[in-house]
Design goal:
The protein is built from one helix and three strands, in the order βββα.
C-alpha cells in the first residue's frame, strides 16, 4: 500500500478539541479512503488507517 494523502483538521475548538484525520491509500492503482476522529490525533490516525484498510479488504473479498 502507498499512502497518498494524510489530512488533519480540527472539528471542535478548545483544550479537548476533536481532530479528524483523512487517509487515502492506494493499492494496485485503486484508492481507498479512511476517516477517524478522536481527541488524540495519533488515535484518530490509527482509526483512519484501519478504516481505509478495511475498505481495501472488503473490496478484495468482493473480487474473490
Amino acid at each position: 500500500n502507498v499512502l497518498s494523502e494524510f489530512t488533519v483538521k480540527s472539528v471542535t475548538g478548545g483544550i479537548d478539541a476533536i481532530g479528524e484525520v483523512l487517509i487515502r491509500i492506494e493499492s494496485e492503482e485503486v484508492g481507498y479512503t479512511g476517516r477517524g476522529a478522536d481527541t488524540d490525533i495519533i488515535v484518530a490516525s490509527a482509526k483512519a488507517y484501519i478504516n481505509a484498510l478495511n475498505r481495501l479488504l472488503a473490496a478484495r473479498e468482493m473480487i474473490d
